[in-house]
Fold this protein.
Amino acid sequence: AIPVTSAAAPISVAGFLFANGEDDFAQSAVVVSGAVTGFSLSQVEAVLVGSNISDSIRVITPDVAEIDIAFGARRILNLDGPDAVLFELSGDQPVGTPDYNERFWVSVFNGVEFSPFQVVVPIATGHDDPADATLDVFAVQLDLTDYGILAGASADRIRIRLVDNLVTRSADPTGVGLLHSVPEPPAVSYLG
């Protein structure tokens, strides 16, 4: 069995439990292609890192952005069911309502290359944005199997692509948390 341990206390965000607390949230977010409208690179990272989901980013035409999101000392573990959750903010909707206008694309790094991008659609969670009750928290639950990661294997990062859909602009991602995670393996030294 793979050990799933952490000294961090569990936390709940928008109805999802993160067993390793803050350790189960993104630790870095790097724009690898394009631009995020009105945000500096450091602002993009500040919004997407950690469990605070009260702010979001988006793109407006002609901007398109691809952002790598990594988890520092933790990896996404592929077990049964969803392995990670991407949070997104949008207008008030009934629980379970998909918001097709807020769709975006996700790819997972398998250790060698990124999987092909897949379109994902955020679903209303029934939880309000902690900073603005006029907005709801939406979630995209990711199962690594859908991205070619074998059961029991892990991945250290994902990539999201944001594109203006010409209706509501783009999705408004606000953070990523790991439902299943393991510690990053220690570096091995081959020096004698």
In short: The mean pLDDT is 91.
